[in-house]
Amino acid sequence: MTPVTAAERSDAARNRERLLLAARELIGQGGVAALTMDRLAEHAGVGKGTIFRRFGSRAGLMLTLLDDSEAAFQARVLFGPPPLGPGAAPLDRLIAFGAGRIAYVLEYGDLVLAAGHASRGRFDVPAAALWNHHVQMLLREAGVDSPEPWLMAGSLNATLDAERLLHLVRDHGVTIERLATSWRDLVTRVAGGA
Amino acid sequence: MTPVTAAERSDAARNRERLLLAARELIGQGGVAALTMDRLAEHAGVGKGTIFRRFGSRAGLMLTLLDDSEAAFQARVLFGPPPLGPGAAPLDRLIAFGAGRIAYVLEYGDLVLAAGHASRGRFDVPAAALWNHHVQMLLREAGVDSPEPWLMAGSLNATLDAERLLHLVRDHGVTIERLATSWRDLVTRVAGGA
DNA sequence: AATAGAACCGGACTACGGTCCGTTTAGTCC
DNA sequence: GGACTAAACGGACCGTAGTCCGGTTCTATT
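^ Those are the sequences you sent over. The predicted structure of the assembly is below.
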């Protein structure tokens, strides 16, 4: 977050902390929907413009709020124990990745949803690029020789879209187990399995 | 559109026509973004409330605007010549369906995008259910025996999400041919092909 | 410690989608 | 054709995300 070129000014840092704290408080009280920018500004004792300079948009703020948990998940994928982390067979890692992603999305629900409504389109966000790359790597290791590896990885990731998953769970009562099963089925077939 | 239970009142019909005409005019002049509800109301000489009673939301209006082309595409899929229509091998129909869908989304671009921002979530819209059912049927005919046929069809359709396709084309310069290739690769693998 | 200027601050302002409710009008029944 | 009712109408109103810019505060420099 802190730019390399210049240290963050102390008042800016103080306000950023205040804002994140106030944001979590508001969400804790009334859910993500209760977090409006006006309320946040008032509750944090800060001007509205300050929020937008700092986080760019409401979605940017949500992204920042998710930073910690997102980093934790990334760490589990990149350095954690198998099958999610390195060490397991590529297909098993792929299956575990989907299951983990599904669990993550359902756990943070509305927050992920709100973060997705970024003006940038929710695809170019750094994390998305990382997952794309990760899936692409696992596919290659699994021996999948696709004419469009990058697009194939993107397609599989589109399957894990937060809005879709939450819609299925909330409006159709689909269980997390069924989602995981479906993902396993999909990637197994793509990888040329049974 | 006209409810079976009661005929539409003449003033309502007149205003609906006015609104659709004015909407197409505004879009023709300044693109979909230029179609704001206030402007539309003024340009059509109609109150704003009238628009919302008739179409429910901005997305609903967009959906209505797409009605004709959507119906045309549906007709091609359900009754048209192979490989999109009936008569071809299931896998070929599936491939053609994706290609057709991609072309459709790219052709109507922003309109489809705006229609997708419906409050209902863009998944429960009637057309989406139809495509889901269609893909599910083709998979079954192709001998794909999935533990979750409905979710599998939904996953494949998620791959054709308008926002994703348009993002790839507009922000990454991906061609329609590459998208079609990737879709073919995906469904071929799912169907157990090469 | 004084100073300059960059970074930051705040809140009034805009544009938008969507709602509400008192008013008008179309269709119907006598 | 007059009266009645349900439907449609319209535009003021609301809450929202996001912008703008004059004033303020921090920090580096001397």
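Chain A has nine helices and no strands. Residues 1-5 of chain A have pLDDT under 50 and may be disordered.

Shout if you want it in another format.
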